[in-house]
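Internal QA ticket QA-208
Title: Verify multi-chain structure generation after dependency bump
Assignee: T.L.

Test input:
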Amino acid sequence: MRLLEPLLIPLAALVVSLLLFGVFVALAGHNPLQVYHSIYRGAFGSWFSWQNTLVRASPLMLTAMCTALPARVGLIVIGGEGAVVVGALAAALVGIGLNGVFAPVAVIGLMLLAAMACGGLWVAAVGALRHYRGVNETISSLLFNYIAIAILNFLVIGPLRDPASLNKPASVPIGSDNMIGNIAESSVHWGLAYGLLACLTLWLVVRRSTMGFAMDVIGGNPRAAYLAGLPVGRLVILACLLGGAAAGVAGMLEVAAVHGRLSSSVNAGYGYAGILVAFLARHNPLAIIPVALLLGGIRASGGLLQRSHDLPDATVLVLQGIIFLVILASESLYGRTPLSQRPGVTR
Amino acid sequence: MSGEHAGLLGVLIAVLGGAIRVGTPFLFVSLGECLTEKSGRINLGLEGNLVMGAMSGYAISYLSGSAWLGVLAAGLAGALLGALHALLCQQRNVNDIAVGIALMLFGTGLAFFLGKAFIQPTAPRLPAIALGGWSGSPVVRAALEINVLFVIGALLAPAMGWFFRNARWGLMVRTVGESTDAALAMGLDVNRVRFFSTVAGGFLAGVGGSFLSLYYPGSWNEGLSSGQGLMAVALVIFARWNPVSCFYASLLFGGAAALGPALQSVGITWGYYLFNAAPYVLTLLIMIATSSSRRTLTGMPGAFTR
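Actual output:
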């Protein structure tokens, strides 16, 4: 029965957060039931809203990994935003540079590799600083975000700027041939497949490989891991590298599937929302998939809330924040519910 | 005076003025964070307090017509978020860093939600003391417009240092931060001391936010904060948990952030956006230079040694 806890506690926390959010919108003078209904309609009510949800869920799956994987070795990394930016930057540079030089398939492949390498190294540096210099990883990853954004702004407004982009500075396009298209007839781009593939692969790594087991040992007790002779430093850096690579792909998708060029829009806040997804999924890559869909849905419903209730677009941010707080508070319930006190089940 | 010389002097004065103007929010959030961390807890969510403070300060100043009432409201909004942080963190198995991230997202979301109506109107701003009246140069005069909040913060830093050294409550905060065992043996209520430290820290961060919306840049919009609240944690590490050093560190960071605009004002526009990264690069370099995987930092509260 203890196995039910990781499922039931987050679900209960979600219900509680929705209730709190209901109180909040009621205080703001809206009918909570109607708002719930609009969120549902905007997120999962029709094929149209499902497509919106899926488009938003794919980058969340990738950026969540940037917090979830380092968390398995005991690091709290919040550098997803920076890795997204660096990944987008790398992808755009490759895309612009090789546009027309190679076949589109090769260009897309190289963009993907470049984004993964740069995003991965960006966050791996955080892990290396933590391991070799004892630099707090949470703060350094945060600083890395701001540095990445400054580099992006510098390049987009300076050297990489397309003179034709007058009002909103952007780079020259990577070329429509080099864009990742949509799945079949839908408006959902293939990035969804990248996200799902990343979640499944990394779940296998984390849960079904010796490396993943070693990472969990480090996360549980670093001293024991040292004594057991595990290569702690290498695994810590590797976890950061994999997480950063995933977030880098999210940045590549912003360039190669959404905008088609580099602009400050590639930094769309998926990095910070990914932290929430990772915590909600308790850093389990497989659980990230449904959680990313849920969060993607909530974000997708923002537009409808604005149109039909005249609620500001920040409403979804408030709901996100409430969910995050309640989920964290619910952590204290593990092992204390009636479920965990069945006779014969030992801790 | 040659033109080149005037340009260099202009940059220096602009950086100094910028250090004071940009550094004031840094000063308040870092003092707040310092107080909270001395009690043994990290509040990474001060960015939420800062943005909430900026919004509520502006809103109350607009509605009441008094900028100082706005400052008070900003502090109270920050204190409420601080209370939320403290209450959540004293639950079992709840990670204070994660709660901080959550409160950052919640606080900024809430501020954007409630602040939508206050983006357009103009609220009364905080007054400034003109210390540059002796100079004929408008650059110097603009740089030496000192806000009262800066003066309050500048006085608060040594006061807080004295509080930690000599005041009974200050010693209580430090005891709780150094060793919960010692605190318990003395009969102190650890959670209560941390609660008040976090609430007071949150109050200060909120006041720092009101400086953003009521003085410089001096209006409320959603892009107002550029992460000053997040930098608080790094600043406090840099300042070695010493309130007086927090004051100097805030000036240094403010100066670093003012470097880009100052260079732009004398016509050096290349790399303007790169100079925006200066405070972050500075923090990072300082952290790399001063951290070590083998020893703990001097001045660090004992509760953080893991």
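Spot checks passed. Residues 3-38 of chain B form the longest helix (36 residues).
Status: verified.
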